[in-house]
Amino acid sequence: MYLILNKKFKKGLIAAAIAVPIIIIAVVIACVINGNSVCKLSRAGIEDNGAVTLISHRGLNKLAPENTLEAAAKSAEYGYGYVEFDIRRTKDGMWVLMHDEDIDRMTDGEGKVGDLTYKQIISCRIDEGKNLKDALSYVITVPTLEQMLAVCSEKSLKPVIEIKDGGTEHIPELLNFIAARRNTDMMIISFDREQIEYISTLISTGKTTFIQETVELYWLTNNLDGETLETAAKTPEIGVSFNGNKAGTQKEIDAFTEKGIKLACWTIDSPSKLEKLYERGITTFTTNRIVYNTAEE
Q1: Do residues 276 and 252 make contact, with C-beta atoms less than 8 angstroms apart?
Q2: Which of 20, 126, 189, 283 is deepest in the core (most CB within 10 A)?
């Protein structure tokens, strides 16, 4: 890999080399000031690491750019067992990692993922994110789903795949693609209820090579209101992952668990919030920064 200059620092290698140590120190200080340092699980009142399932949100994005292989590797380094990442389909049918509909925020290119070919996307470099912005860096490009699944296998991480594109047109193709590369111990999640129900049907009827018991499905939702409960109760084998900063009272949680609906929540970065939800019966959390084994904060 080759070092290249960030687009904001093009005044010469000598000036950049001098600036790098200063920038790195500034980034570290900024992270501490902004509360971006990772936290010990014990801060949430939980001493037994096996009591909860922690999912790193878009990889450990406080230490590496989101939705990158580097962020996944950091997840493994800091003790996560699961890594969540977002996928979208390119114009020519490649599945790549990107949260946003377009590549503008995360790369030096622009345009919607669905309007660009893989070759066009791979020609751009990620120029935002921790340990990258405003500094020299290795070239990091948008990874493919295949590359991320390979890293998950290598690092013993269980993938949590969020499908960002709506609809069901390409779902059979996607499931077959994933199953050919990994057929066990994963989660597939989406805000699109129809999409998740369709995936559940394909798996349960044997129309993919997935083994049903090894793939957890979650419908993403902001609320745990009555309407959400009514919808979820129709197919209780599909879990509900809710916004833990907007929902999650004891009454709401009890209403879902009484119907046999498994619950998870996102995105919990506050140890006190995690502790409260844990006490109410939630054991699966997506988080940006609460990890098992940090030596210090």
Answers
A1: no
A2: 126
